[in-house]
Amino acid sequence: MAVPTMQAIRFHEHGGPEVLRLEEVAIPRPGPGEVRVRVRACALNHLDIWNRRGMPGRRLSLPRIPGADVAGEIDELGAGVSGLEAGSRVLVNPGISCGRCEACLSGQDTLCPQYHILGSQVDGGYAQYVIVPAANVLPMPRHLSFEQAAAVPLVFLTAWHMLVTLARVRPGETVLVWGAGSGVGSAAIQIARLLGARVFATVGSDDKMERARHLGAEVVLHHGRQHVDEEIRSLTGRRGVDVVVEHVGQATWEKSIRSLTHGGRLVTCGATTGYEGLTDIRYLFSRQLRLFGSYMGSKAELLHLMPFVERGQLKPVVDRVWPLAEAAQAHRWMEERRHFGKLVLTIP
Question: Where is the Enoyl reductase (ER) domain (predicted)?
């Protein structure tokens, strides 16, 4: 009897976009407590690129199907799953944890020793079907397309954890968001405005400036032409901002520190330009700054933010949609930083 197969994008070795292959692989079966989702759309993240390239000190078992951000329909329920129905339209929380340890039971999923992200340690959504824990699926907002829904989970959860849970942004505060055209950046602008903050944002090209303003950034700076830290000090009367949302890393780290006011908070979730950030320690203690490292967010936090998506107060930003077979081209588009918001693959 022939084994049923599906189309999937896999990489068998680390390297450039050319290592991504469209292949026929066996359709996975859900185990106890799991569901199988028929994937309709999967959004790209920089994590996909890092996994594809390979990162020092981090090993992935290969071949691997990438993809963390999934929207689709429940196809099959594993043993013991209740409260869900086949055919339901869902989006997937990409953070997977054991659900039993102290961290999980206290609502701090990301501190679970077994925490991992879909498409990294397990196969992800660049495929027609994906297996996830039943606890990781939630209803898809009715007004969103599959492509829009796939653009929500990872970046909005990450930005929510950064701004709401860690930085605790308050109405009237000032927030600087680096890289407004990124998925996290476009989400962070909206969440900061939702919290009542005044938002400064940076972009790397002129065509992205108006789009950042449309999302709610009051002032948009071109980080390729302007000295952002100096501009921030000038725009705030030499005060600086209360919060910096940092995910760029080495290229912007020192400027982020210098942009903060006394008692300011820097929250970081990435290092796309390098891992080493120069820090003048005198700024830390003399200005009593606080630095927060952020990695995704909890299942509860995604539930907290979804009502704002459902009411249209937080909106997924989809830049471009590609068919699954063109995943390599989508990766090139992201690496060239040509996007504003999310790039999404549609699954046949």
Answer: 15-345
Structural domains for the chain: 5-151+316-346 (3.90.180.10), 156-293 (3.90.180.10)
SS3 44: coil
SS3 132: strand
- What tens digit of pLDDT does each residue of 145-186 get? 999 999 999 999 999 999 999 999 999 999 999 999 999 999
What 274-278 contacts at long range (C-beta under 8 Å, 24+ apart), as own/partner pairs, is: 274/249, 274/250, 275/249, 275/250, 276/250, 277/249, 277/250, 277/253, 278/253, 278/254
Amino acid identity at 237: G
pTM of the model as a whole: 0.96
The answer to whether 210 touches 233, Cβ cutoff 8 Å, is: no
Nearest by Cα to 20 from 30, 29, 12, 32? 12
Contact 119, 67 (CB under 8 A): yes
